[in-house]
Design goal:
Chains A, B: Homodimer. Two copies of one chain form a homodimer. By secondary structure, chain A is α/β, with parallel strands linked by helices. Chain A has nine helices and ten strands. In chain A, the strands form two sheets. In chain A, strands 6-7-5-4-8-9-10 form a seven-stranded mixed sheet. In chain A, a hairpin with a 2-residue loop joins strand 6 and strand 7. Chains A and B meet through helix 1, helix 4, helix 5, helix 6 and strand 9 of A and helix 1, helix 4, helix 5, helix 6 and strand 9 of B. The first copy, chain A, binds a DNA duplex (22 and 22 nucleotides) through helix 1, helix 3 and strand 2.
DNA sequence: CATTGTGAAGGAGTTCACAGCA
DNA sequence: TGCTGTGAACTCCTTCACAATG
């Protein structure tokens, strides 16, 4: 779901599957918790439970990184933390800019987990001149006019867009032009970017809509189960196409 | 990625693939924009471009809903908006509660796109007694003590968790016990829930870590490309196992 | 002998390419 | 003629089940 376009066939890269990459942060979090409790080793079964995945999947995921476990014993927690951190590129420091310091942008700036793992909020940028200079989460907000300079001066390659939908594409283009190659988009828009730029999106309303779909389905199944229990099987199983009996031919607004 | 566990084999349900469900909101958004510009019909090619997917995929997705297009012409915008809305369950109203009114919770409460499509913030809940009664986004915050009553009085089935990680699992359990069956989790924790409850998670730091992985890979490829360009092919292609030459045998903190 | 690491089977999602239809 | 709808091929991911092994 991440980028859509894969980067390139990659000259015999040790291709870690995208699905695996997406789970590594989950494992890392679980491992970090174990590490803080000074647990020395952990089995695939235990770790899988903590991360909310199945153990075969976890073992296969780890097998892409190398053979870091010990048969009969499990995995060394500290060592795995290090290996996964390195694989994810968290042993280096990633300066990040957040563009759009509204409610959400401010919340992101204040988010603690940010700094914890290799990420550092290098700058906050907003288009509102009234915001300029005002500190948010201890960092002074800078004006959009200086975006390019800020990116370059700080060597930023990861940008977070938390602007209104209307501004997102333009901000995105400026970020990319200034050298950003990874974007985390909170604006409800599809961003188009050149090849080689990664975009991930976080979209509240999409998530809610997906939940609503399942919620509705549950209600439907409940009703169905009830009907079946009552053995009142009178469902006319044969509508031309659309799986659905009473739909207006034209929509009612 | 949503729930992990599928709901049940479903008595001959018209199984819309999960991947398709996850794209329907995207199509809906693009269609809504077209609708607002009074565009009457749209081809799979155009709509796919607007939604950022490929047209074959879009056509296959729509084929799961039914045959709503016209060959040689395209899709009727208004009709599709209605069909997708209905499929997603957006023709009804979904009361939602947000638990945890910190920076993020407040940002979510203020988020406009919320109300736009079938969702209504029925209540805001926080554990801090000092917050009680204080209005956020025009809605008075209520105390966690009343959580169960609030859920039941409002017939809430979708809950949003925006608490700190430590509180999330407990809040989740109370929500579920009170009747919530869909949860959108912003806390950086794995929630465990009984069967039949859907959880979707939104996790900033996971997204950033995934971006960092790709970012690091880009840097590596760049270096590789450079090396190749200089034709200095002196890569010793044979390290026992771990795809990596200089790793400390034990991690350095 | 408990637990990893992994071939092989199975399933889900994507893309191709073209038949079918307005 | 132009565009949809879809079987079939393909790629990616997950799960099974067991041989390998510290």
């Amino acid at each position: 779901m991440a980028t859509g376009r894969t980067h390139r066939p990659a000259t015999r890269s040790r291709g870690i599957p995208e699905a695996t990459v997406a789970r590594l942060p989950l494992y890392l979090r679980a491992l970090t918790a174990l590490s803080e409790r000074s647990v020395p080793t952990v089995s695939s079964e235990e770790l899988a439970a903590a991360a909310g995945v199945n153990s075969a999947k976890l073992r296969k995921d780890f097998s892409y990184l190398g053979s870091y476990g010990t048969r009969g014993v499990g995995y060394d927690v500290e060592y795995l933390v290090y290996q996964i951190s390195r694989e994810l590129g968290l042993t280096q420091d990633w300066p990040v800019v957040i563009v759009g310091i509204g409610n959400l942008g401010a919340a992101l700036a204040n988010y603690g987990g940010f700094a914890s793992r290799g990420f550092r909020v290098a700058a906050l940028i907003d288009a509102d001149p009234a915001m300029a200079g005002k500190p948010v989460a201890g960092i002074p907000v800078q004006h959009t006019d200086d975006l390019e300079k800020i990116i370059k001066d700080n060597g930023v390659s990861i940008g977070v867009i938390a602007t209104p939908a209307g501004a997102a594409q333009q901000v995105c283009e400026r970020l990319v032009a200034a050298g950003v190659t990874s974007i985390l988009n909170f604006a409800p828009t599809v961003l188009s970017v050149p090849d080689g730029v990664d975009v991930r999106k976080v979209d509240l309303s999409i998530e809610l809509q997906i939940l609503a779909f399942h919620e509705q389905r549950k209600a439907g199944e409940e009703a169905l189960a009830l009907a079946e229990a009552e053995a009142v099987v009178e469902v006319s199983e044969e509508s031309g196409k659309g799986p659905d009996g009473d739909v207006p031919a034209v929509m009612p607004a």
